[in-house]
Hints:
Blueprint: H1 2-21, H2 24-48, E1 49-51, H3 53-56, H4 59-69, E2 74-79, E3 84-86, H5 87-108, H6 112-117, E4 124-133, E5 136-143, H7 150-159, H8 165-169, H9 173-177, H10 201-210, E6 214-220, E7 224-232, E8 237-245, E9 248-253, E10 257-263, E11 272-274, E12 277-282, E13 285-291, H11 292-296, H12 302-305, E14 316-323, E15 326-332, E16 334-342, E17 356-361, E18 367-371, H13 373-379, E19 382-384, E20 391-393, E21 405-412, E22 419-422, E23 428-433, E24 438-440, E25 443-448, E26 451-457, H14 458-462, E27 472-480, E28 483-488, E29 491-499, E30 503-504, E31 512-518, E32 521-526, H15 528-535
Parallel strand pairs: 2-4, 9-18, 13-15, 22-32, 26-28
Antiparallel strand pairs: 1-3, 4-5, 5-7, 6-7, 8-9, 8-16, 10-14, 11-12, 12-13, 14-15, 17-18, 19-20, 21-22, 21-29, 23-27, 24-25, 25-26, 27-28, 30-31, 31-32
Amino acid sequence: MNLVSELVLVRNQLLQRVRERDNAVDAGIAQRMNLITTQLQESVTRTRMQPIRNVWNQFPRVIRDLAHANGKEVELVMEGAETELDKTLLEAIKDPLTHIVRNAIDHGIETGEIRRSRGKNPKGTLFLKAYHEGGQINIEIRDDGGGIDGEKVRRKAIDKGLITAEAAAGLTESETLNLIFLPGLSTADKVTNVSGRGVGMDVVRNNIEKISGAIEIESRLEQGTLLKLRIPLTLAIIPALMVRCGRELFAIPQANLIELVRIDVESGERIEMIHGAEFYRLRGELLPLIRLGRVLRLQKRPSVENAGEGAGTEETNVIVLGAGGQSFGLVVDEVSDREEIVVKPLSRHLKGLNVFAGATILGDGTVALILDASGIAEAGGLHQMSAGSELKAEEKVETVEQATQETLLLFSLSGQDRYAIPLELVTRLEEFKTSEVEHAAGREVVQYRGDLLPLIRLDRVIGNGSTGAGETLPAILFSRNKKSVGLVVGQILDTVQEEVILHPAPAGKIGVRGSLVIQGLTTDLLDMEQIIESVAPGWLEKEAHV
């Protein structure tokens, strides 16, 4: 395999040299060399392949012993055991698969008595499936057990201090399930020799991502859980996208690549600044951005030194990457070509640089570093907010321990007025098309994430200004007790951290706590609970059946 890897490097050098010379005879020889090298590479790669059955063969005994110890009956069904993948990858996924299987028996599948009471077969089923798809190996582990209780996961995460109650309230079902990958989180009620210590699923995901894989989770309460692993066929020779930043060339493994986006400022597209972090609205969703040059502290090329990094007049190249099941945009100077690269491990002296997954030798003999998507996300100040939700920009503002300091969201109705609310109350910022607004039960609503979201027009509540009649409605979303409401405003201005010196509002003024001076301008601080209660009485109260 090492010799074939060297041959691939020589092939890349030869193809690049021939392209530069533009000689028809040489091009024909190079193409045949390319074909033979590719066939030889595939043949040698196949010799390293082993069936996944070699790992699965240990599971029947593991499942039998663990099920017996827990007083359960479990049947194992395997499909695709002959699916082959590289021997090194087979070794790498052995421990993660074992942990997932043990979790399915211990956490997922119920005892016979509980299953009978739910109308199920007293014998549970654990289903393993492996198959090829899109140049990758997909491995599915599914059980027909009790599933994952999202509310229980939220409570555990809040109790452990891994997530705030406000952030937890705004999580989607998928984001809530991803909380189980947090270090220190366990849904077990007591510690056993199998589970309860909160060590396991975070290690599983880390090990899968180390081999450029990904893990997804789906679950339905009392119906079962599905974990899906996507693993590359081999790690020795991989397809990669070459990108340039500053004076350096980097390789991004194609397994991490979701799509390429070019932001054209002249056509009206723009990069938004929210709390000091850059975002791009991609198909209605806010995509966090990381500038590769800033993370790696690279010098700019002379041609772009005068262009600046902000929203200038030039186009911006964004590589949308996946990390831990979530996505973010990597801003680079130039996107080059796709190449098959030979992965060379980094020296032990460089192992601590988690932004790089290895190195490769290019066709011209130069060395290019291979970027690690998860490492770049971490180094760029991105973290999985509430560990498992979409990637959010980490706030760069240092925490101020004074009670009078608050982080506030500033916005306007007509452009001549200014309002503020505590940022900790805000779940999300959205924009809705005016044409999407409907009426239900006498209220304005929009269809949002499979549900109806009530809208509150702030100008109608406080009787000041107007949100206008544009094509879009900026809205601030608030969530409580599994319910959400959108506050329609005119324009989102900024977020600031200020020492709040409040001047009380006149008696009888609805929805305003008082006024304060921010950035030299008078700003009204709103009372969100009073505003919501005045429009939708009882909305803040917890439903009786919850």
